[in-house]
Specification:
By secondary structure, this protein is of the alpha/beta class. The chain has six helices and 13 strands. The protein has a single domain, classed as Glutaconate Coenzyme A-transferase. It is about 20% helix and about 25% strand. The longest helix is centred in the middle third of the chain and has 13 residues.
Amino acid sequence: MSGLDKRVSTYEQALEGLGDGMTVLSGGFGLCGIPENLIAEIRRRQVRDLTVVSNNCGIDGFGLGVLLEDRQIRKMIASYVGENALFERQLLNGELEVELTPQGTLAERLRAGGAGIPAFYTATGYGTPVAEGKEVRDFNGKHYILERALIGDFAIVKGWKADYFGNVIYRHTAQNFNPLVAMAGRITVVEVEEIVAPGELEPSQIHTPGIYVNRLILGHFEKRIEKRTLRA
C-alpha cells in the first residue's frame, strides 16, 4: 500500500521540484475551489518567470493575485481577468504577457492535454482576434481554428475529500476547472479538506481518479467570498 499512498505532510514536500520558468496550471473559478495554500507556498518559494494557466488570476491580495504582487508570473493564460486591478496595471505597463482564451476553449485545451490530444479544431473565436496567427480549416462549410492542448509542469488543485490513493471528490461548484487541471499536470498536487482510508469513497462519486494525482495534502482553508451580497 505504501507505494500507492499519495499523502505528503508538508507544503514544501507538496511542491518539491517547482522551479523558475515552469508552467503551473491552477484550478478554481473566481475564489471558488482555489488551491489557496498551494498558491501561498508558490509565493513563499519565490519562484519566478512562471507561466500560469487558470480561468482567472484571483483578486488583489488573494489567490493567484498574490503572485502578481511579487512579480512571479511572466505569462498568464486565462479566460476572465476583470476582478484584479494589479493584473490590469501590469498588462498595460507591459510587465505581464497575457493570452486570453474563451472559457470553453480553455477547458477543452486542458482536457485535451490530459487526454494526450495535442490539438483540436473549434469554431469558437473564428473571425475575432482570438484566431490571429492560428491555422484555419473548413469542415462541412464552416470555419474552425486550431487550438493547442495545455500541459503544465505542475498542476495545483483544490478538492473536498480524497482517499490515500489520490481519488478525489469535489464539492458542488468548487468542482469547476479542478478536474481538468488535475488531468493535465506532469506533477499534479491536490490539497483537500479531508483524507479518508481507501474504500471509504463511493466509486461512482469520484471525480478525479488517483491515477492523475502525484501528491496529496490535507489543508485548512479560508474560503473567502469574492463578492458578498446581503439582502437590504
